[in-house]
Amino acid sequence: MPVSLAASKVIFEALKECDVRLISALPETWLVHLIRMADDDPQVTLVRLAKEEEGVGLSAGAHLAGVKSAMLMQNHGFLASINGIVSFAHLYKIPLLMLISYRGTFGERDPWQTQGGNVTESILRSMAIPYSILDEPGVVAKRIRQAQTLAESSLQPVALLLTRDLMWEE
Amino acid sequence: MLRLDCMRAVYSELERCLVVTIMGATAAELHSLGHRPNFFYLQHAMGLASSTGLGLALCLPEQKVVVLDGDGSLLMNLGSLSTMARYRPGNLAHIVFDNESLLSVGGFPTATSTGTDLEGIARASGIPKALTVRTVEDFKTAVRDAFGQNQLTTIVAKVKATGPAGYVTDLSLLENRFQFRRHIQSLKRS
Predict the structure, then answer these.
(1) Among A48, A61, A93, whose Cβ lies nearest the Cβ of B55?
(2) Min distance A64 CA to chain B CA atoms (Å)
């Protein structure tokens, strides 16, 4: 499978460096290595979800418990989480570190993934969620650290978009 | 059976727990019995109270966590039952007040009024223990057992579709949220 193991490793190590101890995830192709790494790491609690919106509640519970968390999902999963983000994370000022695989952009071969890419960034902007696009492994560690710092200081959700260039080796 | 009577019956036991409630009548009624810093009222995000309780229970295995859920909220996030069942923390008690109604938004009947069985769904989702209670005495026993046996339990409490006249309390949402988190921090220090 051409999902980048190296990039996944860099992302996972960065999350560990940020003291992330709970990761919620809904499997998707680009996230397979990350989810396996979280599952194999005894210091990390991996929660496999039925639907991504549950992850907002999980992360809120973790935050209230004083534990740092991250959410792994596809952009369609982000779209499925919008009400939870607005009516929980925004309403109660809950930091969320959302790592979102950015499907449906240039290079996308799967027809069923193509619509989510059209709307992801405009929806993030309209929700006033700070986000950054990760397309190169060299910036990943620093950007994840910065994203978490902002989430914790501003008490709000932030998003990192994991791109094809970062996650896929063709 | 009234939801308020159920809450009153276990109120003293809730003192030792972290409690997450759903919005509307459930939050207002618990608040009316006397707010405590270990109560968090999720005043929106229907369906996510159980997910929040799961997050708390997994992160704080030494604490007992109680979710006061409702039929309308749980029906919006039935997948949560399968996620809770998958990790099944023994320190989590999932109480569902089933009044067969979306009471807080106008009293529209939910699917439990036409036969949907939340206890059955919980059991089939893999929740280790699921039961339905119809008397306050049975409710009290079920809550005690849930923690006594250290086993994830979904208790479906069949209650009347009645609630308080209003749902707004004098506790602001953010005040509640910061107080609750600070309370948990104080537990860790002690």
Answers:
(1) A61
(2) 5
